[in-house]
Here is the input.
Amino acid sequence: MASLMAGSALADTVNFDDLKAGAPPPGWTATQTGTGDAKWEVVADGSAPSKPNVLKQSGEATYPVCFKNDTSVKDGFVAVKFKPVSGKEDQAGGVIWRCQDADNYYIARANALEDNVTIYHTIKGKRTSFKNIDTKVAPGVWHTLRVEFKGNKFAVIFDGKKVIEATDDSFAEAGKVGVWTKADSVTLFDDFTYGGK
Here is the structure.
């Protein structure tokens, strides 16, 4: 799997392990798009790919989002390991990039209730999909979701396999990167990695 970022010195990984449990990660905006009450917090989890801590979203909101404030990536990648734990309406985990604020960003997500991976843009709080593929997303296990982006071209890699290639011109400028869920999804995140050119 050739990466746009091969050999990049700018890649960074956040594994949440040195952060205080019971609160959102410092330096991140823990919020939501739309209404509701997202609950983002660092918690200990025995199943974490890198122990002991993960980032957990356990509230209910239209689209809970949590993005890293000091990031600004135009062309590069964002990746995360995520585990869909529960949810009656949704069991989703995603990454966001070129995020301008909580209402304007790109997002790629996998959903264990729908068994699909989808790429969207969210503009002024309205989410619109522009590519989707059916693929098995098992609940209760860790998956890897990665997006590589350059200009208006995007590649979504799920569990090591490229599942979507798409183009879109909604956001051309650099923006923040982060993670995303939907509705009542209880989702764990670990090993959040990103890099730019």
